[in-house]
Amino acid sequence: MDTDVRNEVKADHRPDVSLGRRSPLAKTRIVVADRNVITRVGLRSILERNAGMAVVAEATSYEAALDAVDEHGPDVLIIDLDLGDDTTRGLKLCEEVTDRYPATKILVLAQKLSEMIVVEALRRGVTGYLSKDDVKADELGKGVRAVQDGETVLGKGVGSMVARGLGSTRGAAEHLTDRELEVIRAVAAGLSNKQIAHQAFISESTVKFHLQNASRKLNAHRRAEIVHRASAAGLL
Amino acid sequence: MDTDVRNEVKADHRPDVSLGRRSPLAKTRIVVADRNVITRVGLRSILERNAGMAVVAEATSYEAALDAVDEHGPDVLIIDLDLGDDTTRGLKLCEEVTDRYPATKILVLAQKLSEMIVVEALRRGVTGYLSKDDVKADELGKGVRAVQDGETVLGKGVGSMVARGLGSTRGAAEHLTDRELEVIRAVAAGLSNKQIAHQAFISESTVKFHLQNASRKLNAHRRAEIVHRASAAGLL
DNA sequence: TGACCCCCTAGCCAAATGGCTAGGGGTAGG
DNA sequence: CCTACCCCTAGCCATTTGGCTAGGGGGTCA
């Protein structure tokens, strides 16, 4: 592999003093976006054990992540797409980054694997997808190097999801509308169609209409299944 | 059980520093149990910034966690109760630790907050409960010190859960039987009672019976709500 | 042995749901 | 203007469900 040269760098004692162009090889500059302090510190610690890798910025929100990429133009963005209430915001962010900074590779580090998110993220140019719980310490460094080289890295369990996801959703994974999501949340709370209708100031027919559409989009046929899928996708 | 022998072992192992009162020299000995490497590294890094705190062991399973407590008799056990498929195993572990090593305080660090788990954990002698995503770096050190001093530490959002949890479940939060869980999982997959009955080689009546019991235990009245609660409790 | 819990089954009935067809009205963009 | 998409409504019908009562059999533990 290409580890030989990097090993030389590792032999250097402290790279923090001379980060100009002292080393023959440029450092891999990384931005970490995760709302969780512990994860950020852990990532920094693990990655910086690898000579030639530096975490140049941390972010805890979608905005901050984009700003950090704007400012630092990193080689790799490591991100947990779940940075707020709205998970789909993370997908938009991926789109923007790959669009505006094609040189910045994205490595997603997810807490929970959701088929929809995985497929959609890859569709938007994400080059790596790992599961936080399954990843080993050494796989992180390898993964970063791999995505930097343009390889696609899929962690344990992710590959099969891609296969299933691409197979099942033949058009594209349609995403739920606001109203549909609202109804689904009410269903998850155990409300009947009648109750939901009253709550949302719409007729019972409309509630059924939204649920029918949601059923189709999520490929579910029972409201319990809809709730499960939506829950697994982090939508509730 | 066989606790006597272990107590001897524990007594043998402990007294490297006198820890009656916390002297500036006595380190707070911590065991970290979490399946996630990144979290373990991050925790160690953050905690050891605080002078006087040392992570003496890490564990990635319930067994290993108990072994580590057996061996090191730490002052504080920091644990994510979700170390495997069966979340209730974590609760049993809390019971065992508080039972056998009352001097070891338990600080739960949860990825997702589940009302049932929170209430049950506190009922079993856990003295601290923080949410990974909400906790600030400095709160960790403070939290560890607090639980070590016997204080109860509840993170953001945990307190309200306790209030609601203790209010609603007047007897005790009964936990689901294996069969009930099996049926709920099938419901989450969108199966009808008839299909579930066929799959589990039981009659449709029995499926309904299990669901009725699960409804009562989870305080839900619709299968969609059952699925939601079970999902939120990390049971699926 | 009795108390207790889990698992299993039956039948009844009102209510809710799933699946369908068949519409109208709004807004945004090519 | 046409198209697409979202939101809203109506009715019909078979099926499923929620909620209930009323049992039997087996295991464990005091």
Could you explain how this protein is built, in words?
The structure is a homodimer of 236-residue chains. Chain A is an alpha/beta fold and 236 residues long. Chain A has two domains: 3-168, Rossmann fold (3-Layer(aba) Sandwich); 178-232, Winged helix-like DNA-binding domain superfamily/Winged helix DNA-binding domain (Arc Repressor Mutant, subunit A, Orthogonal Bundle), CATH 1.10.10.10. Helices cover 51% and strands 12% of the residues of chain A. Chain A has eleven helices and six strands. The first copy, chain A, has helices at residues 3-11, 37-47, 62-72, 88-100, 115-123, 137-148, 158-168, 178-188, 193-200, 204-218, 223-232; strands spanning 28-33, 53-59, 76-79, 105-110, 128-131, 153-154. In chain A, strands 2-1-3-4-5-6 form a six-stranded parallel β-sheet, sandwiched between helices. In chain A, helix 8 (178-188) packs across helix 11. The longest helix of chain A has 15 residues, at 204-218. The first copy, chain A, is elongated. The termini of chain A are far apart. The relative contact order of chain A is 0.09. Chain A binds chain B through residues 35-43, 45-46, 109, 111, 132-133, 135-137, 140, 187-192, 220-228, 231-232, 236, and chain B through 35-43, 45-46, 109, 111, 132-133, 135-137, 140, 187-192, 220-228, 231-232, 236. Chain A binds a DNA duplex (30 and 30 nucleotides) through helix 10.
